[in-house]
Every structure is written in C-alpha cells, then in structure tokens.
Fold this sequence. Notes:
The chain is mainly α. 60% of the residues lie in helices and 2% in strands. It has a two-stranded antiparallel sheet with strand order 1-2. Helix 1 (7-20) packs across helix 2, helix 6 packs across helix 7 and helix 9 (152-166) packs antiparallel against helix 10 (176-186).
Amino acid sequence: MSQNFSRKERALIADLQTVCGISFSDAAKELKKYGWNIQQAADSLFSSGTIDSTRPSMVRVNENKIKEWFRKYQDTDCSNKMLVEGISTFCEDIGIDPEDAVILVISEYMGAAHMLEYTKEEFVKGMERIGVDNADSLKSKVDQLRGELKVPERFEEVYLFTFSFARPIGQKSMMLDVAIALWKILLLDKFDLLDMWVMFLEKHRTTAITKDEWSLVLEFVNKVNGDLSKYDEDGAWPIVIDDFIEYISKTKNKE
C-alpha cells in the first residue's frame, strides 16, 4: 500500500497548505525535503518565488466565528451536535451534494467519530485545520480539498478513515449497504470492476464488511484493478475477493 502519514505529519501538511496555499502533495513533498520542519519548508517556498511573499504568513481564523457558524447547523435538542438536517444545510451552504466524496475529506480534517454527526469540537477543529471560519471561505476551498483525493497517499488516508467513521457505534464492522454506497462514491473512476463488484456483493454477500476486507479492497484496486492477470490466487486476499474472482470467471463463461 502507499505511504500513510502520521497524525502529526498530516497536521504539518495542513498547516503548510494554509500558510502557502499549496496542494496536499506539494506540501507533503516540501516537508519531506526539510525533515518535516515547517519553518524551513515555508521559507524555501517563499524565497524561491514559488509563493507570493506578500501573502500573510498564516491565515488566521476566528474560533468564535466558527462556533457562531456552527450554531446555524446545531441540533435543536442537542446544541453540541450537528445531525442529518444540519449537515444537509451545511453541504448546501458550501455548494456540495451530501454524497460528494469531498465531504469525507472534510470529515477527516475534523477527525469526526461518527457518520451523520459532527460535534462542535470536531467542527471547530476541522475548520481551523482547513483554515476557514465561514461558509464562503470553505466553499472557495472545495475544489482544492477534492483534489486531495487525487493524491494516492491522501486518498488512502481518507479511505481508511472512512471505515471507522462509517461503522455503527460500538460495532467492529461496517453495514454492507453502507459499504457499497461508500465504494460507489470513493472508487468511482478508480476501480474498473466497480459495477461488477457491487453486483456481486448485492447478489452473494449478506454479512457486514470487516476492517481487513475494507482495506484489502483498496489494495486489490491498487494492485490488480481490471487486469486479472495480476491477481495471485495464492496471495493473502480475503475470501470475498477470491469469491469475486470466481464470480467474474463464471459470469464470463456464461457470455
């Protein structure tokens, strides 16, 4: 699998993005070059002319403004949480569909614990990390945030985060219908066999998806995708992948 960044490294990447207005991949590359020293990385970018040195060195966000912004979406019965209705309004305000994969990027910045629920603390943390304190500012960064999904290591982080985010509270596995819906969002244009994978699951799978299965599906996409000649039947794939390969073979034989 591609490299995972630690929580501290992700925070440094987010900070350098905020300071310099650059992409996730460029920030990660620059930080690696300077041993994860953000000051040296930022100085290099400004001195090289890559970044406009007239820009403020840091986008300062107002925590009180973020909290006030959150009030628009807070649940009437639990003022510390934003639930389905509030999240729908939040998505509308920043110009995205609730099923847009970018909401998962935003949720990862928040470190959100549960799908369809953001706490005030998570919301404030996420907006501070992104560097915004109002809907218009976040709306202007949506394309940049969506672009992070094109960076393999960043995509993997968001993908793996999604499992813990989307599984039911107190459960170790993700409900099958939720997993299918999320695969349709996350693996669109990435997995050549996505339609067949979904069809296979809907016909032959009844149980929830485990953490190992979730992570190894991404590994399958990265290593094999639509080229089944790369599939090693003696590899350490979960049974569901082996069964999927058999399903493809039987389907092709019927054609």
